[in-house]
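Example 3.2
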Amino acid sequence: MHVPSADTEFSLSDSELIRRAQGGDHAAFAQIYDRYAQPLYRYIYFRVGDHDLAEDLRAEVFLRAFESLDRYEDRGWPLSAWLYRIARDRTVDVMRRQRLRQMVPLESWSGACEGPDREIDVRLDCEELRRLLDDLTDDQRQVIYLRFMANLSIQEVALRLGRSEGAVKALQHRGLQSLARRFVL
């Protein structure tokens, strides 16, 4: 009997990992988690701006994915598109329920090299950027997040969103133009 090496298992396609996970192979689902946990965390964090909430939402994404494995059908879209859709839906649900206000704890100021003024400026800039991103269409915002927060290429974003590369480029261009018009320097 052939036992696959760790290198072989990590080179498995998403489709093969899903198939194995659907068959009850928990190690396969763990590999899916290892592959997508960090990019999903970055995507969620940039939307909510809170580390603990981003971690909680990421955990919910993987819990929902695990619970839905039996209903998952490979329709030619990448697994990441399914996971990012779950992440987007969960994030939107949470943000609708509560309006997040960014608070700067006083403890974080004490060790800052550049002083509290710099910390406040950075946080205000992030808040303003989040607010401006909320004014974009959902598609534009999603492309901007994936391109610049998750550091994905145009091709990767197109695959994850199930869109053509041209559509992703157009959404990115329109989103960036909209941000540029609204961003106050």
